[in-house]
Amino acid sequence: MPPSPSSRSTLSEILQPAVIVGALGYFVDIYDLTLVAILRKPSLLDLGVPAADLVNSGVSLLNWQMIGMLLGGIFFGVIGDRVGRLTVLFGSILLYSLANIANGFVTSFEAYLVLRFIAGFGLAGELGGSITLVSEVLSKERRAYGTAVVATIGVMGAVVGGLVAELVHWRTSYFIGGGLGLALLFLRVSVAESGMFKQMKSAAPHVKRGDFLSLFTKWSRFSKYARCILIGLPSWFVVGVLVTFSPEFAKALNISGEVKATFAVSILYIGLTVGDLASGLLTQWMGSRRKVVLGFILLTVAWTAAYFLSADAGSRWFYTVIFGLGVGIGYWAVFVTIGAEQFGTNLRSTVATTVPNFVRGAVVPITLSFKYCKDHFGLLPGAMIVGGVCIALALWALHGLEETHGKDLDYFEPV
């Protein structure tokens, strides 16, 4: 039986170049972003880092990348609102692709840190730019489907990254990531600029665009912005602590069988793929972003508890828990979409690009807090304390945000 005209029009709207190329761009973004966690041990050992320093050196490596993402998020977010959404997508992918290729030639830990900072700076523009563009080119009735497609395809990049890391040398993994990014530049030619942005730029040239500091000049606007950031904290606690250092946690929990970070990251992102698809579809069917995010945060709480209660279990169960954690934090695209929908067209790119990167950048205080608590209270209690704080802040922040499902986005933010 052929599809109905309405279903055909829905598919044709969703599967347009902005969505498809945005999904592939996020795929490359996630592939490159997770390489640090996947390749932490083999790359650092190959560069001469002592085995006893792998945790601390891994924290430093991740933090430098995330600081780059935090600064890059501000830069590319402002550029997206002042110059255009496509400029961000072209510039960011070119920068992180070249940085990843250079990363394959690194010969010292110090150079490794610098190149991960540069790669992080470039990676910062991809997700926010894609979500902003997709949110503005799709109708308000269907944009949740578009962001679900972007997220579902995108997070598979980590799964592929884990598989590739098992088959090739760690340097080759970086070369592949850089090559995929450069190949994507050619596909970006088929993507058109957001009509909503072009209309604002031509019809209202007096409207101030991309004013990052304006997010901090009014309490109501700052509060809304801060809450958008805080609801994402559990995601990077899971990625940056529980999964990145899963081999160390497995040892402390006396897990039988080997737990490898590469496989753990792949399993997590398979779960994340399921979660992102489910959360995107649920927001469309339930007509609520906030209810779905609340449900997924509570699911993360349940699987986090299971993680710490896995003492003396087998590696298969431990990987199952990591999969469950991935499903739980699979509200990432919905979380970014909430940020994009909270603000007007003249600040949307700035918010949508900085919010996820501030959360990614929050992995710095998260991991430093974890390191401090680990040294004072032990590995497992330290992680429990940090995770509890992240989840509590996320629940508090979500409570104060407005529902934005179906919200008309064609308006300016007074600044």
List the domain count as a whole number. 1
The name CATH uses for the topology is Growth Hormone, Chain: A
Q: In angstroms, what separates the terminal alpha carbons?
A: 52 Å
Strand content: under 5%
Largest sheet: none
DSSP helix count?
19
CATH architecture: Up-down Bundle
Broad CATH class? Mainly Alpha
Structural class: mainly alpha
| Unreliable residue stretches | 1-8
Estimated helix fraction: over 70%
Description:
With 415 residues, this protein is mostly helical. It has a single domain, classed as MFS general substrate transporter like domains (Growth Hormone, Chain: A). The protein is built from 19 helices and no strands. The termini are far apart.
List keywords for this structure.
78% helix, 415 residues, MFS transporter, Growth Hormone, Chain: A, disordered N terminus, 19 helices, mainly alpha, carboxylic acid transmembrane transporter activity
